[in-house]
């Protein structure tokens, strides 16, 4: 059987239902694709620890972590997912950011023993999410049940060796499956056979927005710092110096974080970039992502910190449209209580 | 006028070590029993501003290193670090409130609060 990603013909309600209530399978075969880097070398972790926000001095075999590459101004170069196997570290970048991350690491590599291999074009990447995702992957490989959250392992699916990574993906628990490109169809077919439902990337985008998971170039990027996107779960406050650390520490210490990621309910299909307006007519931020759901139009927004209050209603510069603010689920699940 | 400005910009870029810094390098080498050693001067990624200075005693320079001998000290600098360090004077600030070795680096556009890392 040949499994392909469904074409979008309006909101993919079936796909979204699978992701929310069963087990959705996203083939991640669109462009730009999530960058898949394989990093080896004695100094790899040390360099990543010096250049990114999370504590990576130790990343034991089988363990994963998310971390953010920030520049000297504390702005986001990319959000990375890292996981160590016995022969190296898998690194997932934001879609289209593989070369940016490779170039960044290369720029800061002097005498270190590190090799970064771009495996994006010769590997496949599948994502499974939804409440029945654990039982679905367990049905194709008994060993998957042992893979706890933020862990990675090599397992056999349909007699093929793949890497299964259990982590928060799209803002909620799920599984990433990586393998050689030649094995993609066999793995897809095996997953569909045990009940995984192929979903469109549009349904995945809706799932992400509903989970409040920020994305590169929408909620964060070189235009802001990761604190605005509330990526606290990927930032260590105790690890010491890394590039951008001083700026981020100052913003937190003196409460100078200018904007705050919020989920929004919208009463009109406004476009990302639509401005939010305060009661006294001032700029209160902007909408960053918008998606149509069976329960109405939802989105994410970067809101002026003082106005980012759960339940508050803000006007927009789109005639008649308002945005009702809510706390985003991903931030609530990952940030410390005092953030 | 333009010619004069260009002439100033074309001053040779090298790395220098002050006599004070050289004296302290000599003393440290003595205490570590590496009198014939080489001072490796370099840069590595990291630190609040992106790049951090590195000082290390090594037995000898690598073939690809830029080697500078000044005030009785042999400095070895790898080529990539040299790009970020050209024009730097290595000095030493002693005393109770001294900072130890100081890099006066004209390429550094920004430094972190503690002065150990910089960006260009």
Structural descriptors:
heterodimer; A: 339 residues; alpha+beta; Gyrase A, domain 2; six-stranded mixed sheet; B: 120 residues; 9 strands; 23% helix; 36% strand; globular
What can you tell me about this protein's structure?
Chain A has about 350 residues and is α+β, with helices and mostly antiparallel strands. Chain A has helices spanning about 15-20, 45-50, 100-105, 135-140, 185-195, 200-210, 245-255, 330-335; strands spanning about 25, 35-40, 65-70, 75-85, 90-95, 115-120, 125-130, 150-155, 160-170, 170-180, 195-200, 260-265, 275, 285-295, 295-305, 315, 320-325. Chain A has a domain at about 15-210: Probable tRNA modification gtpase trme, domain 1 (Gyrase A, domain 2), CATH 3.30.1360.120. Chain A contains eight helices and 17 strands. In chain A, the strands form three sheets. Chain A has a six-stranded mixed β-sheet with strand order 8-9-10-7-1-11. Chain A has a six-stranded antiparallel β-barrel with strand order 12-15-14-13-16-17. Chain B is of the alpha+beta class and about 120 residues long. Chain B has three helices and nine strands. Chain B has helices at about 1-10, 20-30, 80-85; strands spanning about 15, 40-45, 50-60, 65-70, 75, 90-95, 100-105, 110, 115-120. In chain B, strands 4-5-2-3-9-8 form a six-stranded mixed β-sheet. Chain B has a three-stranded mixed β-sheet with strand order 1-6-7. The longest helix of chain B is centred in the first third of the chain and has 13 residues, at about 20-30. The two termini of chain B are about 30 Å apart. Residues about 1-10 of chain B have low confidence and may be disordered. Chains A and B meet through helix 2 and helix 7 of A and strand 2 of B.
Number of helices of chain B: 3
Q: Which CATH top level class of the domain at 13-211 in chain A fits?
A: Alpha Beta
The coarse silhouette of chain A is globular
Please state the structural category of chain B: alpha+beta
**Head-to-tail CA distance between termini of chain B:** 28 Å
Can you say what the CATH homologous superfamily of the domain at 13-211 in chain A is?
A: Probable tRNA modification gtpase trme, domain 1
Specify Rg of chain A, calculated over alpha carbons: 20 Å
**Element order, helices and strands of chain B?**
HEHEEEEHEEEE
Side-by-side strand order of the widest sheet of chain B: 4-5-2-3-9-8
Give the amount of beta strand of chain B, in percent. 35-45%
Q: Oligomer, anyone?
A: heterodimer
SSE pattern of chain A: HEEHEEEHEEHEEEHEHHEEEEEEH
Uncertain segments of chain A: 1-9
């Amino acid at each position: 059987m040949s499994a392909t990603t469904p074409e979008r013909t309006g909101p993919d309600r079936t796909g979204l239902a699978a992701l929310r209530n069963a087990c959705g399978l996203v083939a991640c075969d669109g462009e730009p694709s999530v960058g898949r880097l394989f990093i080896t070398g004695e100094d790899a972790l040390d360099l990543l620890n010096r250049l990114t926000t999370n504590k990576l001095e130790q990343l034991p075999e089988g363990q994963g972590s998310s971390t953010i590459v920030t520049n000297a101004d504390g702005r986001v170069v990319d959000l990375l997912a890292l996981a160590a196997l016995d022969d190296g570290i898998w690194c997932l970048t934001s879609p289209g950011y593989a070369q940016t991350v490779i170039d960044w690491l290369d720029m800061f590599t002097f005498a270190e023993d590190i090799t970064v291999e771009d495996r994006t074009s010769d590997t496949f990447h599948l994502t499974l999410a939804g409440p029945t995702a654990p039982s679905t992957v367990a049905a194709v490989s008994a060993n998957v049940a042992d893979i706890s959250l933020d862990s990675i392992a090599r397992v056999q699916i349909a007699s093929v060796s793949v890497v299964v990574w259990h982590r928060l993906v799209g803002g909620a628990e799920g599984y990433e499956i990586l393998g050689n490109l030649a094995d993609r169809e066999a793995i897809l077919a095996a997953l569909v056979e045990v009940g995984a439902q192929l979903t469109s990337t549009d349904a995945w985008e809706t799932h992400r927005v509903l989970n409040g998971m920020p994305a590169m170039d929408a909620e964060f990027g070189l235009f802001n710092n990761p604190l605005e996107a509330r990526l606290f779960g990927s930032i260590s406050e105790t690890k010491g110096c890394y590039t951008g650390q001083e700026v981020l520490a100052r913003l937190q210490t003196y409460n100078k974080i200018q904007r705050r990621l919020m989920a929004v309910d919208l009463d009109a299909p406004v476009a990302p970039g639509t401005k939010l307006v305060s009661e006294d007519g001032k700029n209160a931020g902007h909408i960053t992502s918008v998606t149509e759901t069976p329960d109405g139009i939802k989105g994410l927004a970067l809101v002026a910190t003082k106005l980012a209050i759960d339940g508050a209603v803000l006007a927009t510069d789109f005639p008649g449209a308002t945005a009702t603010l809510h706390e985003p689920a991903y931030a609530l699940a990952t940030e410390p209580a005092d953030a | 006028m333009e010619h004069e400005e260009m002439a100033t910009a074309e001053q040779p870029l090298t790395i220098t070590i002050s006599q004070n810094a050289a004296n302290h390098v000599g003393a440290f080498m003595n205490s570590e029993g590496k009198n014939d050693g080489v001072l490796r001067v370099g840069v590595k990624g990291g630190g609040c501003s992106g790049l951090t200075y590195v000082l290390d005693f090594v037995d000898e320079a690598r073939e690809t290193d830029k080697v500078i001998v000044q005030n009785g000290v042999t400095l070895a600098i790898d080529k990539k670090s040299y790009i970020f360090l050209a024009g730097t004077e290595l000095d030493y600030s002693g005393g109770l409130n001294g900072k130890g070795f100081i890099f006066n680096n004209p390429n550094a556009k920004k430094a972190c609060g503690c002065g150990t890392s910089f960006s260009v």
